[in-house]
Structure prediction request, 199 residues.
Amino acid sequence: MFMCPYDASWLLAQRYRSDSMGISKSEVNLRNVMRMLWEQHIVWTRMTILSIIKDLPDVDFVTNRLLQNPIDFKKVLKPFYGDEIASQFSDLFTSHLVIAAQLVNAAKAGYKDGAAAAEKNWYKNADEIAVFLGRINPYWSEQNWKKILYEHLKMTKSEAVDILTNNYEQSIADYDEIEKQALKMADVMAEGIVKQFLY
Prediction:
C-alpha cells in the first residue's frame, strides 16, 4: 500500500528491527524521507536564488514551493513530537528561508548594510534552531547542530555569491558540497529520531 512520504505516523507502528539486516523498515523509511526533504530544501533554495538573481518569471512559484519544505518537515515531525513542537520547527525553518531570500535580495541590490543585517539574523536563526533541536531530542547535540547549520549557511552564501557574480561553474561545485552536507544533516536528524522513538 502506498504511503504519503510526508505522513510519518505509520512509522511509529513499526518498532521492529530485522535480525538479518540489523535495521528496521521504519528506520529505512525515515532515513529516506529525511534525505528527500533535505534534498528538496537545497534544490528549491538553489532555484529560488537563481530566480531572484536573474529576475526569472517563475520566482513567486519557486519561492512558494521552497516555503512548502518547512510544512513538509512539520508533517514528518508531528507524529513524533506533536503539533506544537512540529509547528515551532516549521516556523523557525521558514524564517531560515525568508531571511536567506532577504540576504540575496539585498546583495543583488548592492545594499551592503542590509545584506550584513540579514546575514546576522540568519546566523541568529541558526542558533535558535540548534537550541530548539537540542532541547527536544536527547540524541541531538545543540553544539553539533550549530556547527552543521553554520556550515550550511556558509556554503549556501558561497553558492549565491557565485551565481550573483556569474561564476556558474563554481556555483555547481558549491552545490555538490551542499548536497553532501545536506545528506549529513538528514542522517543526523533521522538517527536522533530513531534512537528516541523507534528502538
